[in-house]
Amino acid sequence: MTSFTGLDLHKRSVTATTLDAEGVVVATAKMPCRPDALRAYFAQQPGHHAATVECTTGWYWVRDALADRADGGPEVDLTLAHAKGVKAIAAAKVKTDAADARTLAHLLRTDLLPEAHMISDEMRPLRDVLRTRLRLVERRVAAQNSVARLLEKHNVRDVADLDAFGRLQAETHIEQAELLHQQIKRLEKHLRIHLVPDADVQRLFRIPGIGQAVAFSIRLEVDDVSRFETDRQFFSYCRLVPGADNSGDRVRHKRSRDGNRYLKLAFSHAAVRAIQYYPEVRDWYKTKRRRKPEAVARALVAKEIARVVYHVLRKQEDFNGRFKGRPLSRLKKEQWPLLASPAGITGDGEPQARPPSAGMGSE
């Protein structure tokens, strides 16, 4: 018989409430955030366990603790609950840790739990490294902007033209930017080792506007494209469609914050590059630009690139070289990071020389 457990997770403690198949509370406990304590709670109860926890920052250790059965502990099937979805369904007047845990268990038992995607174990650390890289890029840009604002403040064009105190500030920002650049390259080197040989990444490389960083972001943030039944669901998850705020006869669109912000950023960047380098994409963008604001026209290009990505990953087919039915006049060159085979990567993450006869092939 299966029991259903809701886990209300906090920084220092986790509250567990377990229901049986009839919805009766059979156990509840508050314990410290320790893997051994969590496994001991489930070990006290016989039978098969289904558990859920909201997708907050701490779910990693919960997943690892319940997946670790080295000590012969019970098997627990963990489901991630979508925090915003749970709040919309089960808002309550009385809110305590025990009540929240029981609500999660009840939603899981009745198959009403709004689920969040749990990234695969092998891709999870790579995704975290990639997100760390993005944060470092943002800090490097901030340091570079600080130097630019300092020059603007004193109306000079070069750091050497600043006074002693101004140079001290500027040099500090420059040193920080250089250090961040080295750290970014270090992370990218490790990502290349694992991701460049990936067949899906190789397919993404061939799509207009998608380079290494964007391809890595799409591969890791999407993880498994089969979880999206239609391309419209994929667009929504990528934040490429506006939200709605309609009431009566009033129809309003609004910017949605639901979905994955990293994919929104990746496809927006791909759209800019595709417009810049591909005449057919630029022509289609210009037709939209005549009737719509610039940001909206760019968003439409990003959406079309996302459509290509969805079908390439879903069908496991190579990009056909067409955009909106038009063949592209230029394609990606057969050079790094496009590989003839995964053997094109050396142990240190750098490309090997490709034999002269090697073609692009298909992964």
Question: Within the largest sheet, what's the order of strands?
Answer: 3-2-1-4-5
The count of DSSP E runs of length 2 or more, i.e. the number of strands, is 9
Give the % helix: 40-55%
Q: Assign an overall shape.
A: globular
Q: Could you give the order of the helices and strands?
A: EEEHEHEHHHHHHHEEHHHEE
Outline the low-pLDDT stretches. 353-363
% residues in beta strands: 5-15%
Mean pLDDT: 88
Q: Structural class of the secondary elements?
A: alpha/beta
The value of Rg in angstroms is 25 Å
Pfam families: DEDD_Tnp_IS110, Transposase_20
Domain Transposase IS110-like N-terminal: 6-153
GO molecular function, one term: DNA binding
Region (Disordered): 340-363
Any overview of this molecule?
Strands 3-2-1-4-5 form a five-stranded mixed β-sheet. The protein is of the alpha/beta class. It is globular. Helix 1 (35-43) packs across helix 2. The protein is built from twelve helices and nine strands. The protein has helices at 35-43, 59-67, 83-89, 97-109, 124-154, 164-195, 199-205, 212-222, 231-237, 261-277, 279-289, 294-315, and strands spanning 2-9, 13-19, 25-32, 48-54, 76-81, 243-244, 253-254, 322-323, 326-327.
Short description:
48% of the residues lie in helices and 12% in strands.
Q: What labels describe this entry?
A:
single chain, 363 residues, alpha/beta, Nucleotidyltransferase, domain 5, 3 domains, five-stranded mixed β-sheet, two-stranded antiparallel ribbon, 12 helices, 48% helix, globular, transposase activity, Transp_IS110-like_N, Transpos_IS110, DNA binding
